[in-house]
Design goal:
Helices cover about 60% and strands about 10% of the residues. By secondary structure, the protein is α/β, with parallel strands linked by helices. α19 crosses α20 and α22 crosses α24. The longest helix is centred in the middle third of the chain and has 24 residues. The radius of gyration is 32 Å and the shape is globular. The relative contact order is 0.04.
Length: about 850
């Protein structure tokens, strides 16, 4: 094995890096000198630029015609600083005006709507066209790489990572799903290193080879070497390569994996000056191999590829601004796979972006626009997938199609249980999962601290067709629903009755929301099992509450309640009614109060202790929220008598002391008759329920807010920094914290405060139908008021009043609302404010957000 690299490789790689860092950039007739902040052209005209204008120009020039997103240009101008779009617009305008100094047409900046910008033409001055480079026979790098016909899009980081790997490794295998761009990237690696190897860079295309014995011959032919026939071919090739200083690209190895691996191992054992790059859907498993798993394109890069390929088909392709969302959706649904995106893009000029998106359900019939010169398996999307599928064993093919029933991926346990059968038990299913990962058909990922396995959407659509063709859809869908019904039951007990930490709960359950939804859809469908769906909905409440998905769960519960009949066990019905009411405490306390009455009656007759406990809490909360302190206290007293019947330690028990305090706080904020909930916070932290503890800390801060606004803002910032994706109530606490921070920052109005409030709104303040959206709406209204948009703030006040009326909120939130109204009355007459509030009451929550934040 090679101990190091021959002279020349390092120099070549260093040359690439130095080009990127060049102090002077030459583009056509222009010379850009960043250090001097000067741009000049060959006829002597020049301009000295402001630093930020120079940064944007350098970024655009180095992009070599690629589109740069606004975010990339903002990062170039203001690294690590949050600024508004107007600042970038001013810089872009100054770049455009350079043509006034340097001459019309020499520099043109194109705007790609909702995507970004690019330099599309840098014209040569008349009479200054460079002569074509003269090349003598035999000059230039050796090799057989095809000429670049299109620029590489979105793989610059990956290219540099592979070049770095080749500094220390003699074999790098680029793995990934079919169509992800392995071959294109390998070509770019070769082009980048064309000058680094004395004996050249050579491409051996193995896709057309069907006989493993012909692999050495295919490599030799690519390099122009003659080999003897028979068993001596590999030995002779290895001998001839022993003294060569070259890079060989072994392209498309997966169907010849053993033969390719054997040849690679033999070459590397005998030569210290040959390096190999392989592309395959699975690794070669050769000593010294480094693997580079190639992922899908990022969203911005995928959109750029789509635009470029559509423009190549029709130079007039210029979709309207509203099509940006459709392009993003197309790229997402095609999983960012370059081959699929290119096939889709060629249809866009004819169908339009919206029309193309609508037709993606039939993607295998639609996406047939591969290049005529491409390999047969790359001319249609389904041919690409057929190629991969046909290489699978019978067992792996069966598990592959059965995994399609999972939405959003699965854990190994879920896959093993739902996909096992008499022929292949759970152990063999687990082995098949590992095999599918190795073949790049199944993507492993880490979510909420746990390992999951996911089929890309396009691959999953293909697998679903295979599942239907095998006649297994109903069987596997039922197995899937049964598994998640049992999992939901475990989640309810883990959440309320067992000492399970947030991290452990998130790892077990947070990734399964989409699978719960699929199981419920099937259960209530024409061929499903409604009773299984009712049981699943009754038990899924804990996961949905922990993830702050109240509206989605309320819809599930309503559907399940509508399907209850005489076959439904009384205890299941009681549980369902209890959790339905409980979920509405975060949607509409008034509606929760109505549902609680029916739930309590059912739970007293047929429910278990936990179900009655949740139903009673719902009633107590609704009473307190409407200002009925005595009624709330009476219900809480009954709950207190039940606490000893619940397991300890558990969330259900730990929350009781908090609920005693909270019911008093809701009625009378800042009350001194009840101690702060510090013990309840400590109890939750001892359980590892940090998300619940943060929620309690939020309400404590509402009740005992510091008198100094600077201190208050610092405490709310601390809370926001403490929130994690794996925390229970993460969405709910974020809404509360962001709304309050927006309000306080708008009130303080130090330099940068309003910019920060707006940025918080952009990042976090998506308003759901939760009544806690009140806080976000209040924050938005204060931002509007402090940015001299009193009329808009008045309209939002109307929306806030509507939320308060719909949710039955009567107490402390009214005080927050009153402070906003008082500020508005300074800016507006009573008649003006009344008219604006009436107009704004009909605003949708999302429309209100867009009016303030402008997105």
């Amino acid at each position: 094995m090679s101990a190091g690299r021959p002279r020349g490789f390092g120099e070549g790689a260093s040359h690439i890096i130095e080009l990127a860092r060049a102090a002077e950039i030459r583009v056509g007739p222009l010379v850009i000198e960043p250090a001097l902040r000067r741009i000049s052209r060959d006829d002597g005209r020049e301009a000295v630029l402001e630093p930020r204008v120079m940064r944007v120009l350098v970024a655009l020039a180095q992009a070599e015609g690629r589109i740069l997103a606004r975010e990339q240009l903002l990062g170039a101008c203001w690294p690590g600083v949050i600024v508004g779009d107007d600042a970038l617009n001013r810089v872009i305008s100054r770049v455009r005006r350079l043509s006034e100094t340097l001459g019309a047409g020499v520099l043109r900046l194109e705007t790609i709507t909702k995507v970004g910008y690019r330099l599309v033409r840098i014209a040569q001055a008349p009479g200054k066209q460079p002569a074509a480079p003269h090349r003598e026979l035999g000059e230039g790098p050796l090799g057989n790489l095809p000429r670049r016909l299109t620029p590489l899009i979105g793989r610059e980081v990956e290219l540099q990572q592979i070049l770095a790997q080749l500094q220390s490794a003699d074999l790098v295998t680029i793995t990934g799903a079919g169509g992800v761009g392995k071959t294109r990237l390998a070509h770019e690696v070769g082009q980048s290193l064309a000058e680094a190897f004395k004996d050249g860079v050579w491409l051996a295309e193995l896709a057309p080879v069907t006989d493993p014995a012909q692999v050495p011959g295919a490599v030799a032919r690519a390099m122009g070497l003659g080999l003897p026939a028979g068993d001596e071919a590999r030995r002779t090739l290895v001998e001839r390569l022993k003294a060569r200083d070259c890079l060989i690209i072994l392209d498309n190895c997966e169907h010849l994996i053993d033969a390719t691996a054997a040849l690679a191992a033999a070459i590397l054992e005998q030569s210290s000056t040959v390096k190999l790059v392989a592309t395959s859907q699975e690794m070669l498993r050769v000593e010294g191999e480094q693997v580079f798993p190639l992922q899908s394109l990022a969203e911005a890069d995928a959109a750029q590829l789509f635009f470029e390929r559509a423009r190549a088909v029709d130079a007039s392709f210029d979709p309207p601004e509203r099509s940006a969302d459709a392009i993003a959706a197309i790229c997402r649904r095609l999983d960012g796979i370059p081959l699929a995106i290119e096939m889709a893009a060629v249809r866009a000029p004819a169908l339009g972006c919206d029309g193309l998106l609508e037709r993606l359900d039939g993607r295998f019939r639609l996406l047939t626009g591969g290049r005529r010169t491409a390999l047969p398996r790359q001319r249609t999307l389904i041919a690409t997938l057929d190629w991969s599928h046909d290489l699978l064993s019978e067992r792996d093919a069966a598990v592959f199609r059965r995994l399609a029933v999972f939405t959003g991926g699965s854990t190994l346990d879920a896959a093993a249980e739902a996909c096992a059968c008499e022929r292949w038990d759970s152990v063999e299913v687990a082995e098949a999962v590992a095999s599918l990962v190795a073949k790049s058909l199944l993507a492993p990922e880490t979510a909420f601290g746990g390992r999951r396995y996911r089929l890309l959407e396009t691959t999953r659509a293909y697998a679903l067709e295979k599942l239907a063709a095998a006649g297994e859809t109903q069987e596997i869908q039922r197995a899937h629903a049964d598994y998640f019904r049992r999992l939901a039951a475990r989640s309810l007990a883990d959440y309320y009755l067992r000492p399970v930490s947030d991290d452990a709960f998130a790892e077990r359950y947070f990734g399964e929301v989409d699978n719960f939804a699929r199981a419920i859809d099937w259960a209530f469908g024409p061929q499903g099992d409604a009773q299984a769906g009712i049981a699943l909905a009754a038990d899924a409440e804990a996961v949905m509450e922990a993830r702050s998905l109240y509206a989605e769960f309320a819809a599930w519960a309503a559907l399940a309640v509508s399907r209850v009949n005489t076959e439904t066990p009384a205890a299941v019905r009681a549980r369902l009614l209890a959790v339905q009411a409980f979920a509405h405490t975060a949607i509409s306390p008034a509606r929760a109060a109505e549902l609680a009455e029916t739930a309590i009656e059912a739970c007293r007759a047929d429910g278990d202790t936990l179900s009655l406990y949740l139903a009673l809490f719902t009633r107590a909360y609704a009473l307190a929220n409407s200002g009925q302190a005595a009624g709330a206290a009476s219900v809480l007293a009954e709950m207190g008598a039940m606490v000893d019947q619940l397991p300890r330690p558990s969330r259900a028990v730990a929350s009781f002391r908090y609920w005693l305090w909270f019911s008093a706080f809701v009625v009378e904020p800042g009350t001194t008759t009840v101690d702060p909930p510090d013990d309840a916070i400590a109890d939750m932290r001892s359980l590892g329920a940090e998300g619940t503890a943060i929620l309690y800390r939020c309400w404590r801060l509402f009740a005992y807010a510091p008198g100094d606004i600077n201190e208050a803002i610092e405490e709310w910032h601390t809370l926001l920094a403490d929130v994690r994706r794996s925390h229970t109530y993460g969405g709910l606490t974020t809404v509360l914290i962001v709304g309050q921070l927006m309000t306080l920052l708008a009130l303080r109005r130090l330099p940068g405060d309003l910019d920060e409030a707006i940025e918080l709104g952009h990042r976090h303040a998506r308003i759901d139908v939760w009544y806690e959206g009140f806080h976000t709406l209040a924050g938005l209204a204060w931002v509007a008021l402090r940015t001299d948009r009193a009329a808009l703030a008045g309209r939002l006040a109307g929306r806030i009043g509507r939320v308060s009326a719909e949710t039955g909120s009567r107490s402390w939130r009214r005080r927050l609302f009153d402070s906003l109204l008082a500020a508005l009355q300074v800016e507006l007459t009573e008649a003006e404010l009344g008219a604006l509030m009436a107009e704004g009451a009909g605003l949708s929550a999302e429309h209100a957000r867009r009016l303030v934040l402008g997105d």
